[in-house]
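Subgroup meeting minutes
Present: P.N., E.W., G.H.
Scribe: E.W.

1. P.N. recapped why we're keeping a running log of single-chain structure predictions: easier to compare across weeks, and new members can see raw inputs and outputs side by side.
2. G.H. added today's entry (357 aa).
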Amino acid sequence: MRSIWNGAISFGLVSIPIKLVNATENHSIHFRQIHLADGGRIRYRKVCELDEEEVSGGEIGKAYEDADGTMIPITDEDLAQLPLPTAKTIEIVAFVPADEIDPLQMDAAYYLSANGVPAAKPYTLLREALKRSNKVAVAKYALRGRERLGMLRVVDDVIAMHGLLWPDEIRAPEGVAPDSDVTVRDAELDLADALMDTLGEVDMDSLHDDYREAVEELIAAKASGEAVQPSESKDSGGGKVIDLIAALESSVRAAKKSRGEGEGEGEAESEEDMADVHPIKKKTRQKSTPQKSTGTKKSTASTPRKTTQKKSTSKPTSSAASSKGTSSANAAKKQTSSGSRSTTKKKTATPRKRASA
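Output recorded in log:
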């Protein structure tokens, strides 16, 4: 990787020669401006306001515009004469716990590479000291014409530096929070916790820019002359007042479905909703005593066990079946009027002797 700055880390009286390398890269797709009429490229030219003539880069300098519009020229020599101790030095000023750095201050990220063999020993010393202390180093450095604030930490076996905004560059969040008092119920918090647990963790390496990929596919399709089919836009429901509980419950179900959890339950519910439920008819009712012999449905329902026991022992003749049906009807009537089991047994005992005779 190409270095963008050479200097040294000032660690007390220890000086560590280093190279500054960009730790990030921009993958955004950049577009050019064109003239819609003929497709010609639109370019910006640097023109002097006084003579309206285009000027080259070598003729352009710096100036500070005063409140009344007066331009005060500032040359590179003027800036070089300023007492800037961090012009070529990353000066460590303190070591603090990492949680004391506000993430809002985070800016660009860089890798610090040891510059030369003599720098390997002090570089390794600082890296291991940062690891063992579980702290980060706060430093000041100069880059691109201004002094900046930085944070040094260890990434794998490399010292990384994050550019930090100065504390007075962080705006206070005044007027950003909701104006009205909002009360959140415990049930809503419970569902929010359930949604957080369902979403769980994610492998950061698996995340990618879907929009950039779609733009690349669009460019490739138009370059090859293919017709571009408009994609259906999904309504995100932004700006709509919704039932928060219902939305959280739906989100939990959707999160579980996307992670393959609860698929069996969902399928069972869907099958139950679509299927028609019918009562199961027992085969013993189909083989019960004919209705002609009983005369009523009540007698058939009251003696299914007795008919089943008879069929399991022997095959009755037609006369026996008729007498048994008559006895069953009499037993049902007697049981309704008296409500006594003993009476029913006496009444049913007589027809059994007749059937055997």
